[in-house]
Amino acid sequence: MYALIVPVSAPFVLLATVMGLSWWEDHVLPPPPTESAEAPVEAPFTSPAPAQLLELPAVEAALTRGVARR
Fold first, then answer.
1. CA-CA distances (angstroms) from residue 4 to 10, 21, 53?
2. Across the 70 residues of the chain, what is the mean pLDDT of every consecutive 10-residue run?
3. Can you give the pTM of this predicted structure?
4. How far, CA to CA in Å, does 17 sit from each of 7, 23, 65?
């Protein structure tokens, strides 16, 4: 009977650990530094124009050719 206590309680111990670390992070650790107004602003990323894709053959044409070969 005591052999079942450890496997059954393991998820609850892990949950309590995660919740404790979350509380500790929120209440004990210092807040992250804020960015000053004088920090250089990076230019936004502009993606290049999308590549033109080749036109794929119609599905009906591929199916009819496959059936015609049989």
1. 10, 27, 60
2. 87 96 90 70 71 67 59
3. 0.42
4. 16, 10, 63
In three-state form (DSSP H/G/I as H, E/B as E, the rest C), the secondary structure along the chain is CHHHHHHHHHHHHHHHHHHHHHHHHHHCCCCCCCCCCCCCCCCCCCCCCCCCCCCCCCHHHHHHHHHHHC
38's tokens: 């004088």
Tell which residue, 66, 48, 46, has the closest CA to residue 57: 66
Token pair recorded at residue 11: 């998820």
Q: How far apart are CA 15 and CA 39, in angstroms?
A: 39
